[in-house]
Structures are given as C-alpha cells and as structure tokens.
C-alpha cells in the first residue's frame, strides 16, 4: 500500500514510538491524525508535521470513536493506515515480599495494553471496511499493533505486562483472518529495548549494562527504527497476520 496521499492514525502518537511513527508517515506524504490521552503531546506533534490532533484514552471506546470521526472529518475520510502505539509499562511481582497482591495493577495493564489495542483495532476495522478498495487486490487498509519481546521472554515482575503483550500477539492471526474479506491486513511489532520515555529513567550505568547484553547492534533501538518497520509493513502487501520482533537478537534474562 502506498503511503503518499493516504490518511493515517497513530494512537500514542504524542511521544516515543508513536511520535516517531507519525513523523515518518508524514514525511512519506501521509496526512496523519495523532491521537493521545496527552492532549499537549498530540497537539505538539501534529502541529510540527501538519497533522491533526485528537485526545482519547484507548480504553474508552466512545472517545476512540469520536477521535476517528474527528480525524475523518478533518482529513477527508477514515484512515487506511492505523498504528496502535498507546500502552503502559508496568512491573510488579505476583507475590511481593510483603505479601501484598498486585491484582489491581494486572487489571489496569490488561485494560490499557490489550483491551485498548482491541478497541483501536475494532473501531479502525469498522471505519476501513466502509471505504472503497484502493487496488486490484481489494485492499482497504492496514492495522499495526504493538506488542513487546516480553510476550515471549517476560522477566520476573512482568507477568501483567507480558500477558497484555502476549494477548496482542495472539490475536494478530485470527484478526487478520477475519478481516481479510474486507481487504484489511493486521500486523504486530514486538519491540525490544528502545530509547523511549519508558526507558528515560535509566541511569548511565544501568543503560550500559543493558546495552552490553544486546547481541548486535549493542544499543537501545531508536524510535525511528520502529517507525521504519511500520513503513515497510504498510508498503509490503504480503505482510499479514504476523508478529515481528525488532530487538537486536536479544532474549531477556529472567531478571
């Protein structure tokens, strides 16, 4: 699918991987709706790339539907490219040393990361299905969700996070199979360790230790490298129903 001239929507587009994706899509000629619960972040990015900003919490279906409707009205029609980067990073043991329970955190993590991704995908699919096909294959759009390498090698304290990201990866193939009749592709990217706000609190010593454990290249990923993979997924029509790790060949240790 071409990017130039198309309409895209990026959730979590106000920072990190989402911001990089919004910028790359815009640089390649897309009209981009930047959706984030942080209105200031969304407005900043949208203003710098000539896009449209909308505020929405991905767990709120009505707010997400409103954001899609606003984007379609502002940019011309519903997006054909939807990238879901909204999510939270959490850490808590199933059985902490003090004997407390972390069930509330587990529920919140699942709600934001997994249910939020499902909400975005559902609203996007309905909007795309109403569009006319754009080529001889009958393509109408592509949805890219974001998992994490933790879905396969989650560390101690990542039970909630790994479960939420594993759910995203697991629903990729059935979603792609279901939406195939509408000409909608579904893909998932599982990033490793990236230079994002989630990693912003690392001190130099901890960061150096992490990078030493990355086979090659031995550094944190750059957000635009995630965005580059989004671009390649959009442009390659045979990429569908798969989760792709982008991680310097790292396999996370237990802790």
From TrEMBL:
Superkingdom of the source species: Bacteria
Any Pfam family the entry gives: adh_short
Gene3D superfamilies the UniProt entry points to: NAD(P)-binding Rossmann-like Domain
Entry's Gene Ontology molecular function annotations: oxidoreductase activity
InterPro entries listed in its UniProt record: NAD(P)-bd_dom_sf (IPR036291), Sc_DH/Rdtase_CS (IPR020904), SDR_fam (IPR002347)
Family: Belongs to the short-chain dehydrogenases/reductases (SDR) family.
Organism: Jiella avicenniae
Name under which the protein is recorded: SDR family NAD(P)-dependent oxidoreductase
Keywords attached to this entry: Oxidoreductase
